[in-house]
Amino acid sequence: MELITEDVIEFLKNVPPFQFLEEKTLQAIAGGLSMEFYPKGSTILHQDGPPSEYLRIIKKGGVKVFIKPDKGEEVLIDYRSEGDSFGLLSLVGGDKSRANVVAVDDTICYLLNKTAILKLVDSVPAFTEFFLKSFLNKFIDKTYEEMHNKSLLFGGGEKLLFTTPVGEIAVRNVMTAPQTISIRKAAEIMSERRYSSLVIVDEEGVPAGIVTDRDLRDKVVSKGRTGNEKVSDIMSVSLIKSEARDYCFEALLKMIRYNIHHLLVVDQGKLKGIVTNHDLMMLQGTSPISLVREIESQQTIDGLVPAARKTNEIVGLLLKDGARASNITRIITEINDRLVKKIIEIAEKEFGEPPLSYCWMVFGSEGRKEQTFRTDQDNAIIYEDPLTEKEDAEARTYFSVFSAFIRDSLIKCGFPRCPANYMASNPEWCQPVKTWKKYFSSWVYTPTPDAVMKSLIFFDFRPLYGDFRLADSLRDFLSSFLDGQMIFLGYMANMVIKNTPPVGFFKSLIVEKSGEHKDELNLKVKGIAPIVDIVRLFSLEKGIKETSTLERLSELRERHTIVREYADELEHAFEFIMLLRIQNQFEQIEAERMPDNFINPKKLSNLEKRTIKESFTLISKLQDIIIERYKPLIW
Question: Do β-strands 176-178 and 197-201 pair in parallel, antiparallel, or remain unpaired?
């Protein structure tokens, strides 16, 4: 393309590090530049492919820079937009491209050749220093090696939690023993070899259980057992296993969920190794497992308060090391679940055994496993139907003080009351099974605006503690009851399409016009909520029982023709807006401000603005499809 030198110079004057150059140097550079166009989706540089011959400076559009290990998902390094550059590493190295660079939009780049770049590096210190500080240090070869060799000696080990298959760090020489040996013999083997665990196998060598040093303390020493009994009497037979190909992140989640410290690793059913919480802590640097252990060790609410406050540190750690929004919310959900369960256990000790079997349920973001920082309480109790008036009275009395204690304890731990009082401490939301079924059926049969709003909230319920069968029976009832209820779904669709995304003509962002959040966007209400509502509507339509938005999307891919077409885009939009929200909230907390859901678009890069506009456009498109699909039922 023919370039107008004056336009090029004007552009470079606003682009670091070219803005540091003298006018004469800029004129010389502008005269030697060329320009290329890359259509959206085209690969500009290939990982391990030929080195770049140019430094490319983005004039318009944007690119994604990522690497992809031989086995596993791609690892995002960065997005670059207008004024950013790429290709310097491979240009200077001259051997290969370190990463993949793909155009995420129609992109135009200025190309500066190798000779000109090397001349600038040698003669202009400010130019060299800029790239050394802001570019080379960030994407030096060690980062690339780290993803391939899984070195723990160079920084950034936390990223490996999301890119390393657990089979790669599992200890291979697992110590095994037959289940016929005595406890004393098992202890001797572990002591001699200095192992913290021993896998117990059956006659065919198949793992039958595991004994850990914790079992020896808790089940033998503290119980005064003799060492002559069989080791099978104390082994844990409910083996929690992980596939060798699973990422360490999945192993970490299992350890948190089941409160275990050793995890067997299998490959196609065969024992491959064992991984401990210490292994993952070494890999990650600071592990959420230690926080869960701290929660589990507490016996009072006051003891839980300091542990609850540490959750923000975990979010900060995960953000710093490039975790996806879904990774963050899954870990935070597991930690918060542990905290709530511990509070309920303390409540049961305080008030004694409940008169009837019950289940503590959560909904809202907690029910969807999409919590980030402390959110309002959204919970309820479902208990078995009382057989007599006396049982009914006893249950109401017990659960009234019980739920109030839990509510106040959660407030102490940083979970504020629900402004709309959707909490188990509200008698309306602490009811027997038959009443909950009556609620659900009345909302469906009489879909007033209030009933539909409650459906949007409560239909995302998830059992957290107690008798899960009660919640499961309610979920089964709801799924069967909703089958064919198109009138109700039409009312819900009408509610969904009313929350339109903030995009005006020419894709301009519509911000708050006045008030405390003037010139800001509400990422939760206008970005996350519409996606959650759209996915929920289609899930209820298909009888899907999952509550998480991404898990619902996974199920809908195979069962819903509309979602199948847009599933990837919906997932990417949800992940992007959620991560933007988490990052913004974390920055607010770091600045000692109360976190909220508002962001000023001026803080966003050009590429982020473009991405959020595309996300809002996708929401609008799907809302239009919903209008067409439910046309006879929408007014």
Answer: parallel
Could you tell me whether strands 379-383 and 430-432 are parallel, antiparallel, or unpaired per DSSP bridges? parallel
User: How far is 477 from 464, CA to CA, in rounded Å?
Assistant: 19
Indicate the pLDDT class of residue 633, thresholds 50, 70 and 90. low
Where are the alpha helices (H) located in 483-560, listed in sequence order?
486-498, 523, 529-541, 549-559
pLDDT (tens digit per residue) in 379-422: 999 999 999 999 999 999 999 999 999 999 999 998 999 999 99
C-alpha radius of gyration, the chain, whole number: 29
Tell the residue number behind the tokens 């024992």, with chain if given: 271
Q: Which residues pair with 209 in a beta bridge?
A: 200
**Residue 40: DSSP 8-state:** T
What gap in Å lies between CA 155 and CA 400, rounded to an integer?
51
pLDDT reading at 284 higher than 60? no
The Cα 11–Cα 19 span in angstroms is 9
Q: Out of 61-70, 517-526, 621-630, which region has the weakest mean confidence (pLDDT)?
A: 61-70
Contact 358, 386 (CB under 8 A): no
Kindly list the structural domains of the chain, giving each domain's residue range(s) and its CATH number in brackets, ordered by start.
5-147 (2.60.120.10), 166-285 (3.10.580.10), 359-633 (no CATH)
- Pairing label, strands 270-276, 262-267: antiparallel
> How confident is the model over 310-360, as pLDDT tens digits?
877 777 777 766 677 888 888 888 889 999 999 999 999 999 999 999 999
The pLDDT value given to residue 70: 65
CA distance 45 to 50: 8
CB 497 within 8 A of CB 627: yes
CA distance 370 to 538: 19
- Give 536-553 as a DSSP string: HHHHHHTT----SHHHHH
